[in-house]
Amino acid sequence: MTIDPQPEAAIPAGGPSAALPAAPEGGSAGYGPWRLALKRFLRNRVAVAFLGLFVLIVVFVLAAPLWANHVAHTGPNETHTLEKLHVNGEVREVVTPEGKPIGPQLFEADGKFFLGADSRLGRDEMVRLMYGGRTSLFIGVVSGVITTFLAVVLGLLAGYYRGWVDSVIARTLDVLWSLPVLLFGIAIGVSLALGGVTIGPIHIEGGSVWVPILIISIFYTPYVARPIRGEVLSLGEKEFIEAAIAQGAGPLRVMFGEILPNLASTIIVFFALNIANNMLFEAALSFLGAGVQPPNSSWGTMITVGEELLTTQPLLAIIPGVMIMLTVLSLNIVGDGLRDALDPRSKVRLEAHAGIAEPQGTSV
Amino acid sequence: MKKLGGVIAVLVLAAVMAVGLVSCGSSSDSSTSGGGGGKEGGVLNATYASFPDYMDPQLSYTAEGWTAMGEVYIPLLTYKHAEGKEASEVVPGLAKEMPKISNGGKTYTLFLRPGLKYSDGTPVKASDFPYAIERLFKVSSGGSPFYTTIVGAEKFAETKTGGIPGIKTNDKTGEIKIELVKPRGTFTNELGLMFAAPVPKGTPNEDLSDNPPPGTGPYKIINSQPGRGWEYERNPYWAKANSKAMPEYPTGTLDGAKITIVRNPQTQVNDIEQGKYDWMQNPPPADRYTEVKEKYEGTQFEPHDTISTYYFWMNTTKPPFNDVKVRQAVNYAIDSAALERIYSGQIKGTQQILPPGMPGYNKFEPYPHDIEKAKEMLKEANPSDMDITVWTDTESPNNEAGEYYEGVLKELGFNTKLKIINADNYFTVIGNQSTPDLDTGWSDWFQDYPHPNDFFQPLLSGESILQTNNGNFANISEPDLNKEIAKLGEEQLGPEQEKAYEELDKKYMELAPWAPYGTRTLSTFVSSKVNLENIIWSPTFFEYLTSFEFNE
């Protein structure tokens, strides 16, 4: 999925605190807004189930070193082209002389090559899948954090100061938004993969995971910053802001002390959805050779490697693909669940994703 | 830069063909077909995975281009249409006979055959030859360095005006006299390259890929659409004039051919299996190679050894590879058996500069795989700089070979960084000395012509270290060996010279500027409609279009 193209409409100003007046309909007058949101979220079984799935995936990828050291006894980039496995008294070659990698062994070889070898280099697919997932999730989460940070700062500045500050920021975001993201991402990724880039004191080496992180963070900022700006604009009209200003609060105090807490629910929802989008973008960039650079794995690069062996070992492309799908699906459903829980008045177009039709208005 | 091309003596195949010739006894045109059972006519529907670099005889420097235009532009001398050792034999093309070499190897005299015509009807003149050579320099062709020993050529390369005084022609008698600055043992071979194929005077001095100039061969190219494909049809003046003038040159059985660019090699294989196309120029992808080989070998599929060396170069000018011990250690650490699998069996392991099939080749294995020894040697050498960058290109399985190599270097204790560059400009990037961190990386080399000098002069002589378009990636310059290469380059190839090249091979491998790992196997894959047996595989031009023939 992509982030809602008209998100301003999707999340009306307010978040949990604005949801407060709605609380009595649910008969939970005594609860605070966050507690209420949690209650609503827990009632959404599908979202809870997918949250569980996401946690499982995170645990799976975090367990990579354990599996690598204690079960597979190999690292993600170690090649085993000429190695032989002794399985039930039978000798199996990791890569045949014709260049065909071994298929899934499950536990037959004590967990070595659980999912087979990844290519003619004879690397352990399972180990690469776990480490690759780490890379993919890392890129997704870190880009999510950077995007959210940039978006919040830009959104606050533009929405609070308005005038020319708003014009400059909003138009810059518009320009960024209008660029064909993937094409531009590939162009930048390919050129940075070679030489790296230096931004002020920070130097990013070519081939480092920070290159895709940088690309993804920058390109997805407008998708989050614009709705936040919209929300800040409408919050700025509210009486409590006027009250704060009347009490003598400076701009920083108003922005970060008064407006920011009211953006919390929006930020949380966007953060979850943003990670999913980031992971998809990373997979696309890596698949096209502009993201994570070999020999390191990510789920995107693993699909590229697997694609070449599609006719003989289709699982090599399917497994990382399924992992991406499950992660993105779970993040989307959790994100939608969060949105419902934090802002029950928003009845806008959340049913379409992945065909899960969760009645929005009735969950409270 | 490098070029794909080459095959060694496939004697078995030659024998099979000889048997075919005797047993069939059908009276097909003996100059075109070695076997039998074929039929005249038909249009070959074929695919290439990519459009050649140029569809212009003076510009193209890739296997695809040379295969595509080999039967369209005939140079003064050409290569025999035969399999095996004979295929490396230079024979007269547009010239009446082999050049008369005089003045201590500095003067080449040839005579044009009378009555030759281009495919547009223009008569071929002796003065078209210098026109083509001048055109080569004017369009800054990658092939121009072959002809800089012609008197005045060096200057012409700079000024691009005034002609090359070292070539004198007489259009009436057809005499072409070429004066060289110094003897050049490979010049006969170089006169047989398509770079030197005459084109009509007045042919524009620009890339003519979308409208190739008229040629003298049995076919002409029409409808060339860069990036999409091209077609061949009969050269109308072949039957009328040229075939009579050079009767030993094969005429071919096809009426024409249509080439389509199909960029996905998986699709190419499927299309050939289904008979949608009749031939694919590139080998099947690694994933399908074994399947295709098992199913079709001998009937529709034929692997060919090439005259090529795949190697990892090490930059000898910078630490850590400025230490010969380090370079030798890397040679011990590389296991060509692993690389054979990475190439799905499409390379054969070697550990030397010259590949099998090249004169002067004598198999030796200076560095049997021994990782422990490698680690020990590296410990002894104790290089100060252990941070290195490893370069390779995106084309599978070269990228995997690079990943393997990086893994080996890591195992030796280096801190490595892998850079994988798009195959379209890989050689431009690593051939540019200003590219940072050129420490070590992958490369290959296919012969331009069957002469060992073609492996030493451009790749290992100090003279060929260039700022851009460098081919000596190791940047090795050993004064003694440079002199040896230059000296051998002036001599004609004989048993004594072959011995000297063999020695040179050993001397270089002692210095270990490269870690060579294999020689490539390529292949021919055709549909069931095509007579595989008759297809002639040449070391320079790969499959000859004139040798394709449909089954009855």
Structure characterization notes:
The complex is a heterodimer of chains A (364) and B (552). With 364 residues, chain A is mostly helical. Chain A contains 14 helices and four strands. In chain A, a hairpin with a 2-residue loop joins strand 3 and strand 4. In chain A, helix 7 runs antiparallel to helix 8, helix 7 runs parallel beside helix 10 and helix 11 crosses helix 12. The longest helix of chain A has 37 residues. Chain B is α+β, with helices and mostly antiparallel strands and 552 residues long. Chain B has 16 helices and 22 strands. In chain B, strands 2, 9, 10, 11, 12, 13, 14, 15, 16, 17, 18 and 19 form a twelve-stranded mixed β-sheet that branches. In chain B, strands 5-6-8-7 form a four-stranded antiparallel β-sheet, with no helix packed on it. In chain B, a hairpin with a 4-residue loop joins strand 7 and strand 8. Chain B starts with 10 loop residues before the first helix and ends with a strand. Classes of the chains: A mainly alpha (364), B alpha+beta (552). Chains A and B meet through helix 9 of A and helix 8, helix 10, helix 12 and strand 17 of B.
